[in-house]
Amino acid sequence: MIIIIGAGPIGLASAIELKQRNVDCMVIEKGCLVNSIFNYPTNMTFFSTSDKIEIGGIPFISHGPKPTRREALEYYRRVYEHYKLDVRVYEAVQQIEPAGSGFTVTTSKDVYHAHKLILATGFFDIPHRMDVPGEDLPKVKHYFDEPHPYSGLSVLVVGAGNSAVDVALECYRCGCDVTMVVRDAEIRKSVKYWVRPDIENRIREGSIHAHFNTRVVEIRDHDVVLATPEGEKVLKNDFVFAMTGYEPNYKLLEMAGVAFNDDEFRTPVFDSNTQMSNVDGIYLAGVVCGGLHTGKWFIENSITHATRIADHIAEAEKVSEQD
Q1: Which range marks the domain in which residue 238 is found?
Q2: Are the CB atoms for 26 and 49 separated by under 8 Å?
Q3: Given CB 3.0 to 4.6 Å as the disulfide criterion, which of 101, 123, 129, 180 pairs with 210?
C-alpha cells in the first residue's frame, strides 16, 4: 500500500498515476478535497489556463480563458469521482514512524502501514506569522475570503505580493478604507503585470494608503501600531489581512526524517529524477519541493512529479515481484 499525504491536485494526480499502474494507494487529507483551493479567495481566478492544470487526462473546460476557484473545485471533484479514488478527508497525520520495510502512519482517526509514502502537502496550510503582539486577535486574518463583510471598515493589508495587492484592490472597490503596509520600498516586481498599474495608480491618487519601508509593531482591538521611516504611527483599524505568505509543513517533513539543503529557502532534499527524498521510500511531490521558495512550483509545472514517482514505484514493484 502506498499512502499519499495531501489531496491537492498533485496528490490526486499521484493517486491516479499509481492506480493506472495497478498500484494500491490511498490519500490522507487533513481538510477537504483540494483543501488549499477551497481556501482561496471566493472570487479568485487562476494564473494558468485550464488546460495547464488538468490531471488524469480529464479535460478541464472553463467559461473564461482562465478558470475560477469555483470551476477548479468542481473539476477536481469530478476527477476524484471519475477515478473512484480512496481519499480520507478531515484526517490529520499525527505521526510517521519507520516500521520494518515501510512506515506506520498514525492519524486522528486510525493507524495505517505503508511501504512507501508520497508527501504532497503543499504550503498553503501554514501562514508566515508576523510574531507581533495582537496577531492572535480575531480581527487578524491570514486568509481572505471576499470583501463584502468588511465594507465601510478600516482594513490594513500587510504585504506587497499578488495576494496582498488583490486583497487591497478588492476591499477598496467594496468600499473599505484600505491601508497597505509594505516592508520594502515598493510593490513587488513579481505582481501580475496587468494588476501592477492598477494598484500603483490607486496608491498614487490616495484611494489606497500605503506605508513603505514599514512594519507592524502591535495590533490592538481598535488600532494598529506601525514603525515607519517617520517614526511610530497609530492607525484606526477594524481588520488586518496579513498576506505575509505561507510555508510547507516542516514539522511533518521532519517527522518523516526528510533532510533539508543548507540554502535560504530551506529546500527539502530529493532526487529530481525520481522525487525520492533522502529517506528511502518517501517521495516529495508538488510545491512542497520548493521549501520556502513558494513561487518555484505550481500545479502546472509539478504535475510531472506524479508521473515520475509512479514510474519509479511501479518499476520497484515489478522488480520486487520478480525477486
Answers
A1: 129-242
A2: no
A3: 180
**Total Cβ atoms within 10 A of residue 231:** 7
The CATH number for 108's domain is 3.50.50.60
> What would the DSSP string read from start to end of 25-51?
EEEE-SSSTTHHHHTS-TT-B-SS-GG
- Helix H or strand E segment including 167: helix 162-173
Q: Tell me the three state secondary structure of residue 305.
A: helix
Q: Are residues 198 and 234 in the same domain?
A: yes
Domain identity same for 161 and 203: yes
Which of 210, 242, 274 is the last residue in one of the domains?
A: 242
Domains contained in the chain, number: 2
Q: Pick the closest to residue 243 from 152, 144, 146, 150 (CA basis).
A: 144
Look up residue 311 and give its three cell numbers: 514510474
User: Confidence class of residue 238 from pLDDT cuts 50, 70 and 90?
Assistant: very high
Q: Are residues 103 and 134 in the same domain?
A: no
Q: What is the pLDDT of residues 125-166, one digit of tens each?
A: 788 899 999 999 999 999 999 999 999 999 999 999 989 999
C-alpha cell at 61: 473546460
pTM, two decimal places: 0.86
Closest CA to 26 of 121, 90, 114, 124: 114
Residue 32 backbone dihedrals phi, psi, to 5 degrees? -95, 175
CB 305 within 8 A of CB 276: no
Using the 3D structure, point to which of 242, 277, 310 is the last residue of a domain. 242
- Are 86 and 229 found together in one domain? no
One domain, residues 235 and 191: yes
- Non-local CB neighbours of 21 within 8 Å, separated by 6+ positions: 310, 311, 313, 314
- Measured in whole angstroms, the distance separating CA 29 from the mean position of its chain's CA atoms is 14
Distances (CA, A) of 100 to 117, 281, 294: 14, 12, 34
What CA dihedral angle connects 96, 295, 242 and 11, to 10 degrees? Answer: -40
3-class SS of residue 260: strand
